[in-house]
Amino acid sequence: MLVSRRLFGGILAMIDRRRLLSSAVAAGAAGLGPRIAWADAPLAPPKASVRPVTDVLHGVTVTDPYRWMENPKDPEWMPYLMGQNAYARAVLARIPGREALAAKIGSVSGKLAAVGAVQPAGGLIFTQVRPRGANTFKLYVREGAGAHDRLLIDPDSLASAATHYSLDYWVPSPDGKYVAYGVSPAGSEDSVLRILETATGTVLPEAIDRAQGASPSWLPDSSGLFLTRLKAGTKHGDIDHYLDSVSWLHLLNTDPATDRKIMAKGLDPAVSAQDIDAPVVLAQAGSDFVLGIVASGVQNEFDLYASPLAAALAGQPVWTKVCGKDDDVVYVVPFGPDIYLLTHKDAPRYRILKTSGAAPSFAGAVEVAPESPLVLKAITAARDGVYVAALDAGLGRIFKLGPDGRKTMLRLPYAGSVSALATDPLADGCWFLLDSWVKPPVLCYGAPDGAVTVTDIAPQPDIDVGPYESREVMVKARDGTLVPLSIVYAKAARRDGQAPLYLQAYGAYELDIDPAFNPRVLPWLDLGGVFAVAHVRGGGELGDAWHLGGMKLTKPNTWRDCIDCAEYLIAERWTSRSKLAVEGTSAGGIMIGRFVTERPDLLAVAIIRVGDSNALRFEFMEAGPANVPEFGTIADPVGFQGLREMDALSHVKDGVRYPAVLLTTGVNDPRVAPWEPGKMTARLQAATASGKPVILRVETDAGHGIGSTRTQRDNETGDTYAFILWQTGDPRYQPTAG
Fold first, then answer.
1. How many CB atoms lie within 10 A of CB 359?
2. Distance from C-alpha of 282 to C-alpha of 338, rounded to nearest angstrom
3. Which residues are registered as beta bridge partners of 130?
4. What is the pLDDT of residues 671-691, one digit of tens each?
């Protein structure tokens, strides 16, 4: 689940939202704990105490057998969680071939130099890269496209034997002289913001805590920055952890205690903000105004304000409201004296408006890019124009809007997926990543005339992708809606219904799973498996209407779209019921949890990664309030109705023959509390009549999977594949008795 939209780069952050999503989806609660010899393994999972708590909500009685798990201080909680992990590790360790499979996955993933983000600034090019064979992403800088990289930030330098560190975000100053960055331990995302001098690598003395998702934005003269901090005194696990955050102005080489408060709830009567709202202030070189964004948790739409830059620098911004949430603006960028707005108001596939920074007004804004067959996804400003990322039948497109309104399409070297779009407002052109299901990523530069150059910043791996291919199909759902489905397979694969198939779906927040190269999929294909992604409603592949079609009361479309795609794959003989595995991660836990409880007969294996399984109680974890705009609240009768239908835990029934289930969690997860998978595991273990395993894999040096190391992800993937192959009958992965 998301914590705040600002964490996903909708406005400011450096890591592109698709890359971040695919990282979470691919990783889950990635990691590998100590291996346990089968002879020493627990013979059965620990049995959770049943202590029913009954609530009457809007006249409906709801009983929760495991409410006690929500209290991390309950003396039974950690022994239960670690006991489940010990059992899961023992079960997985018994599967023959698992270690060799993990080693193969690691060998392939290590060949890829993965680029997470790029940003030009001050004539320099900054890149976040996990080099070939490396375990974590690091920050590099080079003086031009053809120069050599120089290491700036290596989170491994902070690691200990038991704890790894991750680079959460980074933003270079407009002149390239400084980098503001956040790092955190053990997948916690609990960032401390620091500032580094690019030329020398010197870290300035200030260290700013409570900087999770800080969305730093530099002043045009690079003398300081705006950042958003959590409130003082908050701690992980508090239900109000993400409420009442504040935007501050910090000047370089000053004590953060002297920072000026710029935007917060109740600070200025001109700004309307609630406790759930996250204020973000954006400045940009070349513009003499700042923008103030008030984002309500994970809601894509936000309230937008503008103030003269000079007033904000004096600590007294004069805010003028530009638009409200009901104007459906989801992206904003300054471009010289103007403000560009990406909105789905009266345009489900989005359009772009322009208004003056001196006298901003949504009502008076001029349309500069009308709605078209393209789904517009993001906008960012360079010196020569505003660059726009779009989807065209699932394929990435980029075009430039010049100051005169002229549209220039970039000539991409091949049809694929575009991500990590970045520009420098003081330089021409744009940078972006291009890849596909079976093409490794390349980092490209797009020139003002539309020409595209492939750089060497993402060198091609020594991986032969010739044996693999993919196809895109449209599946008719039960209500007649056409659902996009991606299928990736080896060219030599036979469609005889005997292949194990790994189907993935998400369907939330208007996030899309675009075609992305994942080397860890290749060993699965080599084993005869098929990989597929159902682009279900709730996501953003087809625009705002697609999101609304799988949200709150329409949420059942999310899991039923996946069920219908699964039935299509079976009917077309890509797989069979006894060979099908379906996975959902994070908010995708709603999808897979309700798939399993609605159609347990249709699949052999369910993978619930760091999944939301107890939607009726999600509001009571630290990330819960921020997610109310997406899922609803039990305080509202209609919201309760939707959440009750989403809640997989309450739909588990005794005596049902459930499939094999692998659940995962991370002890430090700030997004989906470990008690959600803890409860779902206990309930499924107590209810199932199939005799198939239900196991909970726990990682103590990870959180939600974001920031997990390559080795952690490799080993988690190895466990997942081995579990699926065991349960789908592959003779190479059948444990021996004893």
1. 9
2. 14
3. 114
4. 999 999 999 999 999 999 999
100 close to 404: Cβ distance less than 8 angstroms:
no
How long a stretch of residues is the chain? Answer: 738
> pLDDT (tens digit, 9 = 90+) per residue, 212-238?
999 999 999 999 999 999 999 998 889
Question: Edge-to-edge strands of the sheet including 580-585?
Answer: 468-476, 482-490, 530-534, 501-505, 580-585, 605-609, 660-666, 694-699
Q: What is the dihedral of CA 405, 341, 436, 135, to 10 degrees?
A: 130
pTM of the model: 0.94
What is the spatial distance between Cα 422 and Cα 185, in angstroms, rounded to a whole number?
27
* CA dist., res. 118 & res. 85, Å (int): 38
Contact 263, 295 (CB under 8 A): no
Residue given tokens 């409570």 in the structure block: 210
Show the tokens assigned to 536: 């279900």
Residue 735 near residue 35, CB atoms below 8 Å: no
E-assigned strand segments in 14-102: 53-57, 60-64
Give the residue from 549, 550, 656, 652 showing the smallest Cα distance to 594: 652
- Rounded to whole angstroms, the Cα distance separating 8 from 418 reads 16
* Gap between the Cα atoms of 541 and 390, Å rounded: 10
Q: Are 26 and 520 in contact (CB under 8 A)?
A: yes
Q: Which residues contact 650 (CB under 8 A, 6 or more apart)?
A: 62, 616, 644
DSSP 474-491: EEE-TTS-EEEEEEEEET
Pair of tokens at residue 328: 């459906």
Could you give phi then psi for residue 58, rounded to 5 degrees? Answer: 55, 40
Structure tokens at 224: 């300081």
**Chain Cα centroid distance, residue 62:** 31
What is the layout of strands, in order, in the sheet containing 439-446? 417-422, 430-436, 439-446, 452-454
- List the single range of 19-23, 80-84, 559-563, 597-601 with lowest mean pLDDT: 19-23
CB atoms within 10 A of CB 265: 18
CA distance 578 to 436: 29
How do residues 642-659 score in pLDDT, each as one tens digit?
999 999 999 999 999 999
Beta bridge partners of 126: 119, 141
Taking the CA atoms of residue 717, residue 718, residue 723 and residue 724 in that order, the dihedral angle to the nearest 10 degrees is 60
Sign of CA dihedral 514, 520, 525, 529: negative
* 573 backbone φψ class: left, alpha, beta (φ>0; ψ -120 to 50): left
End-to-end CA distance of the chain: 40
